[in-house]
């Protein structure tokens, strides 16, 4: 059986490496706050959620597969949690099977039988949950899973399994037969079971007439060893088959727990937003290359989770846009807007709802970030050197369609040099087919792009009211030669100057 709750044709592989830019995404977008909310104190849910989000997919069909499955979990949260509990219980049951790891056939059979005897209980529970909710689910993911469980774990199958386990577990005698080959060597081993009732002679311990028997003396170690080898050869095929069966069942429950963990993480995230419920919406994932980015009420999810207060959202409507230049007032919400954009794109490509009232965008082969960092505390590298080093690594990951988010890049040098570096780097990224969203205070850089009159460029800025107040909204507007730092100066030192 296959789980396939996260994709129609593949299981999630937690051992698969994450994209090289994953750590920067977590750091610069504040995603650790989101993962903590998804984990809700459970490290396993946290780790699985982190992996699924960062290992984003670029197929809109897979995204929709997850979205519909998540809809079922949101409508039927008890179903998701019951399935997860059954899977977790099964894993805990198989861990109770004690014994040394051994390749001897009898040992392998014993461990596998004990494991399957415990897992039969979990298989019955799983089938009961599937039967209870099969008629209520709407997604192909859960319908496919439940139909598979109903077919594979029917009463006849489970009864047959229990019968085989009783025979292999010692309740019935198991016979090993073989033939004599060349050199009087045993060959053609087969595991059989009695088809006729035991005779009265057998019950009394007497050999059958015409039968040849050989009894090994209690202290004949060599004879016992030879007999054990013969028995092991007879059990070898059965040992391999039952061990594979046991491993398959354990693997299924393990995979079921892993894939359900992501959906439970999404449910935890919704709960973490509080009873008032900040908006989360199912995004529309478009085919690659569409160059569409539309959002209503887009907000920074990490900030909302950390502050526990309402966060200002922004609207954006871009079609055919390859360059978004964000300028405006200091502390006006520019970096927050950039984080909200990156977080929404990453969450959409994980199959999650995003922090907005509406979000529509094409899927991308990658989301890369280049945010301003603190200076190297070891003083081994200068700030500009560190920025250029990170940018060099980033450029190596760019593919056509990649979304690159740049926040105050190259501001560690003077404006003339920073603008010149920025024009060269951003121009190269655009030529490579990337889409760039840039937050900058450098008027020379921003106005240079405006002067180019690129038809695929969009200029927005942080809104500032005439009295200097910030609304934290991002509105259409060309770059200005000031970031209104005087507003902040007067707010901090105004009273002292007037004293």
In terms of structural class, how would the helical and strand content be classed? alpha/beta
Would you identify the CATH architecture of the domain at 284-492?
3-Layer(aba) Sandwich
Please indicate the percent range of residues in DSSP E strands (runs of 2 or more). 5-15%
Bulk shape: elongated
Mean pLDDT: 84
The total of helices stands at 16
Number of strands: 12
Spell out the helices and strands N to C. Answer: HHHHHHHHEEHHEEHEEHEEHEHEHEEH
Q: Strands of the largest sheet, in order across it?
A: 8-9-10-6-11-12
Largest sheet: 6 strands, mixed
Q: What integer value in Å does the Rg equal?
A: 33 Å
CATH topology of the domain at 284-492: Rossmann fold
How far apart the termini lie comes to 78 Å
Q: For this structure, what is the CATH class of the domain at 284-492?
A: Alpha Beta
Residue ranges: pLDDT <50 for 5 or more in a row? none
Helix content: 40-55%
CATH superfamily of the domain at 284-492: P-loop containing nucleotide triphosphate hydrolases
Task: Describe the overall structure.
The protein is an alpha/beta fold. Among the domains are: 57-169 and 247-272; 284-492, Rossmann fold, CATH 3.40.50.300. The protein contains 16 helices and twelve strands. The protein has helices at 22-29, 31-39, 43-54, 60-75, 77-95, 105-133, 140-152, 155-168, 200-203, 221-272, 301-307, 334-348, 383-395, 415-431, 443-452, 485-498, and strands at residues 174-180, 186-193, 284-286, 292-298, 314-319, 323-328, 358-362, 367-371, 403-407, 435-439, 457-464, 470-476. The strands form three sheets. Strands 8-9-10-6-11-12 form a six-stranded mixed beta sheet, with helices on both faces. A hairpin with a 5-residue loop joins strand 11 and strand 12. Helix 2 crosses helix 11 (301-307). The longest helix is centred in the middle third of the chain and has 52 residues, at 221-272. The radius of gyration is 33 Å and the shape is elongated. The N and C termini lie far apart (78 Å).
């Amino acid at each position: 059986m296959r789980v396939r709750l996260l994709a129609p044709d593949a299981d999630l592989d937690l051992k698969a490496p994450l994209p090289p830019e994953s750590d920067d995404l977590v750091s610069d977008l504040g995603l650790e706050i989101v993962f903590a909310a998804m984990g809700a104190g459970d490290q396993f849910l946290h780790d699985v959620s982190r992996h699924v989000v960062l290992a984003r997919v670029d197929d809109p069909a897979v995204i929709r597969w997850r979205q519909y499955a998540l809809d079922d979990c949101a409508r039927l949260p008890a179903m998701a949690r019951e399935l997860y509990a059954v899977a977790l219980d099964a894993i805990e049951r198989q861990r109770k099977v004690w014994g040394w790891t051994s390749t001897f056939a009898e040992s392998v059979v014993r461990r596998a039988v004990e494991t399957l005897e415990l897992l039969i209980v979990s298989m019955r529970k799983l089938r009961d949950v599937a039967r209870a909710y099969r008629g209520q689910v709407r997604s192909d993911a859960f319908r496919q899973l439940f139909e598979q469980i109903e077919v594979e774990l029917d009463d006849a199958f489970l009864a047959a399994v229990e019968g085989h386990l009783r025979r292999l577990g010692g309740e019935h005698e198991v016979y090993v037969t073989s033939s004599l080959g060349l050199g009087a060597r045993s060959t053609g081993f087969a595991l059989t079971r009695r088809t006729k009732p035991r005779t009265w002679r057998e019950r009394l311990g007497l050999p059958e007439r015409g039968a040849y028997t050989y009894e090994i003396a209690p202290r004949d170690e060599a004879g016992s060893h030879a007999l054990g080898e013969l028995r092991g050869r007879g059990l070898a095929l059965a040992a391999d088959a039952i061990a594979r069966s046991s491993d398959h069942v354990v693997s299924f429950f393990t995979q079921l727990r892993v894939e359900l963990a992501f959906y439970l993480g999404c449910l935890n995230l919704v709960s973490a937003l509080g009873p008032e419920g900040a908006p989360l919406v199912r995004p529309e994932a478009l085919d690659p290359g569409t160059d569409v980015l539309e959002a209503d009420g887009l907000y920074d999810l990490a900030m909302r989770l950390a502050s526990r207060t309402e966060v200002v959202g922004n609207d954006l409507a871009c079609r055919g846009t390859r360059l978004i230049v964000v300028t405006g007032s200091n502390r006006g919400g520019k970096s927050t807007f950039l984080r909200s954009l990156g977080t929404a794109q990453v969450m959409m490509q994980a199959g999650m709802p995003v922090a907005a009232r509406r979000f529509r965008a094409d899927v991308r082969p990658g989301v890369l970030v280049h945010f301003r960092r603190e200076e190297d505390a070891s003083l081994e590298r200068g700030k500009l050197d560190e920025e250029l080093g990170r940018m060099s690594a980033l450029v190596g990951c760019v593919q056509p369609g990649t979304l690159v988010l740049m926040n105050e890049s190259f501001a560690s040098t003077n404006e003339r040099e920073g603008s010149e570096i920025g024009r060269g780097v951003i121009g190269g990224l655009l030529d490579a087919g990337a889409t760039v969203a840039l937050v900058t205070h450098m008027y020379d850089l921003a106005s240079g792009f405006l002067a180019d009159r690129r038809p695929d460029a969009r200029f927005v800025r942080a809104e500032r009211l005439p009295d200097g107040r910030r609304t934290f909204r991002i509105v259409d507007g060309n770059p200005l030669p000031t970031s209104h730092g005087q507003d902040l100066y007067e707010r901090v030192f105004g009273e002292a100057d007037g004293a």
